[in-house]
């Protein structure tokens, strides 16, 4: 199978959907330099559920300050209720992260084996964990494979940028969304990353 590169994917997408040209040309997969272990990445996404980016970052920073930047499942399991309250982690989210921590302690090769599966199967496996919904599972898999074909339904930022970019009214959004994202096959994840970048670096500064 031929390896992919940003430019080829961009040109393919722009031919299919010229509306994306400026957004894609202002995006590079090398822009995000933050790298986390799979365990940290998944727990970080859970922390960010239904929170603004700033709030999620604050809680994540408090967590790493309390334990360590490269925390392990065992570090999570040692946290006390008082510590999680100080961090700002809700009881529900701590419960979800603790369940995943316990699973990884029992199965240290969990994430290694998970990535041997297809994107669809990875999402299915992740959904078996309490507290991991379709958005969380989708974001995790997308972050591991930007050339996958995943759209994280329910993502407020993507919904906002799509409405602005394609000039879609709120009342028509649900009806038109799938028509828009179907054009991005088989690189939905790549477009989503470009749209997040566009929001963070261009829209909010406009």
How would you summarize what this structure contains?
With 206 residues, the protein is an all-alpha fold. It has 13 helices and no strands. It is 63% helix and 0% strand.
Please give the structural blueprint.
Layout: H1 6-16, H2 21-25, H3 38-47, H4 53-66, H5 73-77, H6 81-87, H7 91-106, H8 110-114, H9 119-126, H10 134-144, H11 156-166, H12 170-182, H13 188-201
Structure explained in plain terms:
Helices cover 63% and strands 0% of the residues. It is an all-alpha fold and 206 residues long. The protein has two domains: 6-29 and 151-205, Endonuclease Iii, domain 2 (Orthogonal Bundle); 38-144, Orthogonal Bundle (Endonuclease III, domain 1), CATH 1.10.340. The radius of gyration is 18 Å and the shape is globular.
CA-to-CA gap between the ends? Answer: 41 Å
Q: Quickly give the CATH architecture of the largest domain.
A: Orthogonal Bundle
Query: What's the CATH first level of the largest domain?
Result: Mainly Alpha
Using DSSP, what is the number of strands?
A: 0
Main attributes of the structure:
206 residues, mainly alpha, Endonuclease Iii, domain 2, Endonuclease III, domain 1, 2 domains, 13 helices
């Amino acid at each position: 199978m031929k390896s992919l590169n940003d430019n080829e994917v961009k040109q393919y997408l722009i031919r299919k959907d010229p509306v994306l040209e400026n957004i894609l040309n202002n995006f590079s997969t090398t822009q995000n330099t933050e790298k986390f272990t799979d365990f940290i990445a998944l727990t970080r996404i859970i922390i960010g559920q239904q929170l603004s980016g700033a709030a999620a970052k604050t809680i994540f920073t408090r967590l790493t300050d309390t334990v360590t930047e490269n925390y392990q499942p065992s570090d999570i399991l040692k946290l006390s209720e008082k510590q999680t309250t100080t961090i700002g982690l809700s009881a529900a989210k701590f419960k979800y992260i603790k369940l995943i921590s316990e699973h990884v302690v029992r199965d240290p090769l969990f994430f290694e084996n998970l990535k041997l599966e297809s994107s669809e199967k990875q999402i299915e496996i992740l959904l078996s964990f309490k507290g991991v919904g379709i958005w969380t599972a989708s974001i995790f898999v997308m972050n591991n494979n930007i050339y996958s074909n995943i759209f994280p339904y329910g993502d407020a930022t993507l919904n906002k940028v799509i409405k602005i970019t394609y000039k879609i009214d709120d009342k028509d959004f649900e009806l038109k969304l799938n028509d828009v994202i179907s054009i991005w096959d088989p690189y939905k994840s790549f477009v989503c990353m470009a749209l997040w970048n566009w929001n963070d670096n261009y829209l909010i500064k406009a």
